[in-house]
Design a protein that fits this description.
The protein starts with a strand and ends with a strand. It is 34% helix and 25% strand. It is an alpha/beta fold and 343 residues long. The longest helix is centred in the middle third of the chain and has 17 residues. 46% of the residues are buried. The structure holds nicotinamide-adenine-dinucleotide (NAD). Nicotinamide-adenine-dinucleotide binds next to helix 1.
């Protein structure tokens, strides 16, 4: 039986999750929901996704000439799982509505952690989240940090992490904020909230982060300093990362890629839809090991990195798969994700 999935909010994240759900053979996309009759609503209809709207917005959509399949309540009554991809903080307001319909819930990282029973990352805590009523897929930066930390932790043990996050100023579609001609302390206080967010999944970890926002829309870049439980060699680290799911390793000297602009251009050249790079990208040239310390640069495509984890979170709440390795394999095959060296 296929699990019936509804998506509330069809913006940057929601539209990508809708496409990803449509590609899974154990899921059925019941519909997507929007409040405004804009170009994204038109795109949903053009892509053949049943479009639902809150009952008090039916008239607005009718006036705009956009065909709707029904109301948000009707969509929720047909679903087993709702993925909330509304703007940060709005999901919490919808939670009572979802609860009324008895659907399982997957929220995004813009919500406070307490919105759901657990914060989620497949590589870190899949088994602990099986069958929960609600999960929160952590933000793009936190997902990037957790992928590398949990991959390294399983192999060598991680004692502490210090990280600097260089954040994109805005998403490419935005025209109300950024990019600005500045480097903004984002936030000014140290440590930044990103480390605390990592701890919602790994409460035992000693982690501190700092973040600045810069005038770009393409990707985030992280600099990490990881203290390991034991001394390892650079080859040991590369050996583990080469086989870690959802991580690709780029050689700047071998490929000429030493910027987010070139990474995005490569994704375009490969014909990736929307130039998405849901894989975490590590720069091989930056990987440095000194005793039990590991240093590296990594890049995070903020618009797409959380998509595979959302698919796994649906499988976790619906208990479609108990083995994290199997859901990763299934999701990544359907989405065409790579691991190992960028080639
Ligand atoms: P977005 O603004 O691109 O999309 C939000 C969608 O929700 C739009 O379709 C909008 O029409 C709809 N919406 C707005 N108000 C609504 C309401 N009251 N009820 C129902 N729908 C409403 O936002 P996004 O970037 O996709 O972010 C969604 C969530 O994903 C947030 O929690 C965000 O923090 C998180 N997230 C965003 C990114 C990113 O880089 N954009 C990355 C990871 C996680």
């Amino acid at each position: 039986m296929r699990v019936r999935v509804a998506i509330n909010g069809f913006g940057t994240i929601g539209k990508r999750i809708a496409d990803a759900v449509s590609l899974q053979d154990d899921m059925e996309l019941i519909g997507v929901s929007k409040t405004r009759p804009n170009y994204e609503a038109l795109a949903a209809v053009r892509r053949g996704y049943p479009l639902y709207v809150p009952a008090d917005r039916l008239e607005v959509f009718e006036e705009a000439g956009i065909r709707v399949a029904g109301t948000l309540d009707e969509m929720l009554s047909k679903a087993d799982v709702v993925v909330d991809a509304t703007p940060g903080g709005v999901g919490a307001k919808y939670k009572p509505v979802y609860e009324e319909h008895g659907v399982k819930m997957v929220f995004q990282g813009g919500e406070k952690a307490h919105v759901a029973e657990a914060s989620f990352n497949t590589l870190c805590n899949y088994e602990e989240t099986l069958g929960k009523q609600s999960l929160r897929v952590v933000s793009c930066n936190t997902t990037g940090l957790l992928r590398i930390i949990c991959s390294i932790h399983k192999a060598f043990g991680v004692k502490a992490v210090r990280a600097v996050i260089v954040r994109r100023g805005a998403d490419p579609k935005e025209n109300k904020r950024g990019p600005i001609n500045s480097i903004v302390l984002n936030p000014p206080r140290l440590p930044s909230h990103h480390g605390e967010d990592v701890k919602t999944v790994l409460p035992w970890l000693d982690i501190m982060t700092a973040a600045v926002a810069v005038p770009t829309t393409l990707m985030h870049v992280h600099f990490l300093n990881v203290k390991l439980e034991k001394r390892v060699s650079r080859e040991d680290v590369l050996g583990v990362l080469e086989n870690s799911p959802r991580i690709v390793i780029a050689s700047a000297s071998g490929t000429g890629i030493q910027s987010t602009a070139e990474l995005v251009e490569y994704a375009r050249d490969l014909g990736r839809a929307r130039y998405d790079l849901p894989e975490l990208v590590l720069w091989e040239d930056s990987i440095t090991v000194a005793g039990n310390e590991l240093l590296l640069f990594q890049a995070v495509h903020q618009e797409s990195i959380v998509v595979p984890e959302n698919i796994d979170a649906i499988r976790a709440v619906a208990k479609l798969e108990t083995d994290p390795a199997k859901t990763i394999e299934k999701t990544d095959k359907a989405l065409g994700l790579r691991r190992g060296w960028l080639s």
